[in-house]
Known about the structure:
The chain is α/β, with parallel strands linked by helices. The protein contains 8 helices and 5 strands. The chain has helices at 20-33, 43-46, 58-77, 91-101, 114-120, 125-130, 161-174, 182-186; strands at 8-13, 38-42, 81-85, 105-110, 152-154.
Amino acid sequence: MRNDNHGLTLWFTGLSGAGKSTIAEIVGPELERRGILVDHLDGDVIRTNLSKGLGFSREDRDANILRIGFVAKLLTRHGAGVIVAAISPYAETRAAVREMIGDRFVEVFVSTSLDECARRDVKGLYAKAFAGEIKEFTGVSDPYEAPEHAEIVVDTEGRTPDHSAAYVIQRLEELGMITGDAAEAVA
Ligand SMILES: Nc1ncnc2c1ncn2[C@@H]1O[C@H](COP(=O)(O)OP(=O)(O)O)[C@@H](O)[C@H]1O
Ligand SMILES: [Mg+2]
């Protein structure tokens, strides 16, 4: 069947506290203003439902990411703008979801450094991880394999969330994944 829907999956990866969810929440309404129906698949939320019961071993992390990728693929096929915000630490697993979704997959590396994430310590988890109270904590006691060829790299340090989100939108336009905001073009 012919499918004229141009869905996309915008996949945010980065350390805990890097800014994935914050930027995703600002980008969502921007896509909706462009007429795209948006669905958010946020790692923290997914772990309370679709991936409930999974832990943080490599096997469980991979299962979590592949489940998110599976849902993202279906929604993308139906024309949605799927915004994933999940640490997704393993390059091989990110490559697998890229493969599943195809050319409507856009990887966004939120490249905030470990030092900055630990300084922010949004959830107080870095303090615990450095104190050895949390094992398998990404960036401290568990690996994070930074993307080498992400379509979009967002450096949040010294920038506001709004600035970072605007950069993501600008890059999506440059990549031809979305078109400009009609309202803005007229104004
Ligand atoms: N440019 C920026 N983009 C996104 N978040 C930022 C930025 N600058 C500072 N922050 C702050 O960093 C924190 C990021 O937290 P969060 O979005 O929950 O991270 P993640 O989802 O990657 O774990 C928030 O407290 C946010 O206000
Ligand atoms: Mg988050």
